[in-house]
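Students often ask why we bother encoding 3D structure as a string. The short answer is that it lets us treat folding as translation between two languages. Here is a chain of 328 residues written in the first language.
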Amino acid sequence: MGSYKGLQLWHNGKGPSSFRDITLTSHKLGSDELILKSLYSFISAGTERTIISHPPDDESVAEEMNVPYMNGSFKSAFTYGYSLVGEVMAGPKKWLGKIVHVMHPHQDYALVNERDVSCIPEEISPRMATLISNLETVVNAVWDSGVSLGDKVLIVGFGNIGALLASVIRKMPGVDVDILETNLYRRDIASKQNFNVVKGTDLKWKYTISFNTSGSGSGLQEALNNTAIEGKVVELSWYGSKIVSLELGGSFHYGRKHIISSQVSRIPANKSHHFNYQSRKEIVIRILKEIDFDFMTNIEIPFRKATGFYDKLVKGEVNEIGLLFNYK
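And here it is in the second language, the structure alphabet:
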């Protein structure tokens, strides 16, 4: 039996982020509940910036954007976060000491149901395991796109989703991948990871498949403009309440181009008979074993400094693509 005290991060679109104290006690646990001590959580910077700066005002959209174990409301103050890795401190004996992954907002300790957690294999570090949730997004995007042998792929935006997606797709034989990124800092990261980085003025070809991960309408426009006849544009960005304008004259109609929405919360219909959320996660675990993503987990921020970090994030002052909170 024990009591666990820590901090919980809250966001308020009308003001700065702040901490609130939390206390979890093990003597109140249900038979299927666990208390986790957080080790790391991944910061999905683009989505978190949008959710804080432009929270959804449509109730149906807000419901879709809720994350498991979220507290509060987008209309006022709320907790948020995607991917947390922690050690089981209390709960059924078989779980004690296990390192697990769970979809959960950023906080020191978490009370979760055992059905929502996944054990992390020993060969995958807790830091690397924080990539699980965003890699599930990547798997969905690959499925939605139907990328296959011979495709020429353009990825617009080299944030965390763009970088993970590019890393996965370039492992496919016979597929060429180019990166279009306007941020010089991120362009440099992509170049150092040996990706072919292009400028909008010197694109080499019309792409059979383009992915927009930039979080901007201008990025989606670039993807459309540079996609071949009958090509696909897969949109992974989420815009919250922001309005996005597109020019759909030009080659869009005569080129019969397809815009596909890709989002992680549902398995694509063409895969739903063969895969579920658990088998998709098993694919992600295999990807983590086979691809080196060290450059995506090399920047750690002490959780106690989270409020200052979000002040910079909402002002657009954060360029890094792989950011973790550590809870040491």
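Translate back mentally: The CA atoms of residues 219 and 233 lie 11 Å apart. Keep this in mind for the problem set.
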